[in-house]
Design a protein that fits this description.
single chain; 3 helices
């Protein structure tokens, strides 16, 4: 899911940058390294913020986990 969000984010970011560059007549320069660096950050954040609550809930009694929500 994080990878799909990454692809959507990169697509919208490039499209938005192209639109702004065209409107204000600036050259469009997009570094591929910034796109490549965004992928592990996005996936890492998704895994981290999905893993931490899941491990905490897995160690709880199911009734308490549902009640605590």
């Amino acid at each position: 899911m994080c990878a799909l969000a990454e692809i959507a984010g990169v697509t919208l970011g490039v499209a938005g940058s192209a639109l702004v560059a065209r409107v204000v007549d600036w050259p469009l320069i997009i570094a591929s390294t910034s796109i490549a660096a965004a992928f592990p950050v996005s996936v890492g954040g998704g895994v981290l913020f999905g893993y931490l609550p899941a491990t905490r809930s897995a160690s709880m009694n199911p009734i308490d986990a549902l009640r605590r929500e």
